[in-house]
Amino acid sequence: MTRPSRPKRSAASATRTANQTKPAEGMLRIATAEEYRYSDDADIVLLPGRAALLPATQTLVCADLHLGKAATFRRAGLPVPEGSAQQDLKRLADLITTYEARRLIIAGDLFHARAGCTSRVLGEFTDFREQIHKQSNTEVILVLGNHERSLGRHFIPQDLGIDQCVQELVEPPFRFIHEPATTFGIGTNGEATSGRGTRGSRNKSQPSTFRHTEFAGPTGGASATAATTATLFTIAGHLHPTISLRSPSGDRLSGRCFVATQGLLVLPAFGSFTGGHRVNPEPKSKIWFVKDDEVIKICT
């Protein structure tokens, strides 16, 4: 994987960029990796391979790896091949190296279930953690997802090399959570909803069983209030969004996608052994079809 190179900007170009009006609240500049090759004028870069880059802080963001899902299926007696977790971690390590990421934020559902957290799966993750620490000294932050709630108190993130484990992470202008409020028509088990609420969400008052009390809370020491949330751009996962395209001849192309609306970007599931749910775009929403080697903006 080769990091996209960017041409040097002229003095006039630099002056134009410096004089540009700052985008309105909730309307940060989103570019694909290909677009970013020709201009560094982006707050969020959408990467092939189902992750995003925040250039200002050299932060890589992904969601929904669901490590151990294949192992969970095998324990249930289903003939699922091994190796998906290792392959996904290799892809993630390659992205970190390519884009020289100083931080990795995982927006929930790093692991799938307690049954799938075998010694092999946990060992593969700790090997990955050691690798990116040695190569890039990359910090790892886990925003808790709904699947982390099932792991049990004997799972201690610090033992796996996770530097921070939080319910949400607030770093203006960004807010990182797992479950977005807007669901783009995805409901529980992929059924259509009115567009609010979360797929498979639980009562917010239900305590998490994933042991994380020894870690720092969200930046600023507290969760975002309703007032501050309105001024922040939220990056989330959980929905596993996909899009289905049909040509005039009737051919259909389906795949994972990034989806954004005012103040929100939902990431595609990073894990290769995860399902997906087709989004129903809302007015003014934007969609980018993502492949392993390309991100394509879709007109909606």
Overview of the molecule:
With 300 residues, the protein is α/β, with parallel strands linked by helices. The protein has one domain: Purple Acid Phosphatase, chain A, domain 2, CATH 3.60.21. Helices cover 19% and strands 22% of the residues. It contains six helices and 16 strands. Strands 8, 9, 10, 11, 12, 13, 14, 15 and 16 form a nine-stranded mixed β-sheet that branches. The protein has a seven-stranded mixed β-sheet with strand order 1-2-3-4-5-6-7. The longest helix is centred in the middle third of the chain and has 18 residues, at 119-136. It is globular, with a radius of gyration of 19 Å. The two termini are 30 Å apart. The model is unreliable at 5-26 and 188-222 (pLDDT under 50).
Q: Return the CATH topology.
A: Purple Acid Phosphatase, chain A, domain 2
Distance between the termini: 30 Å
Mean pLDDT: 76
- How many independent structural domains? 1
User: What would you say the CATH architecture is?
Assistant: 4-Layer Sandwich
State the secondary-structure class: alpha/beta
In one word, what is the shape?
globular
List the total number of helices.
6
Unreliable stretches, pLDDT < 50, 5 or more residues?
Answer: 5-26, 188-222
The percent range for strand residues is: 15-25%
Radius of gyration: 19 Å
Biggest sheet details? 9 strands, mixed
SSE order, as H and E?
HEHEEEHHEHEEEEHEEEEEEE
Q: What is the strand tally?
A: 16
**Percentage of residues in helical conformation:** 10-25%
Query: What is the C-level CATH assignment?
Result: Alpha Beta
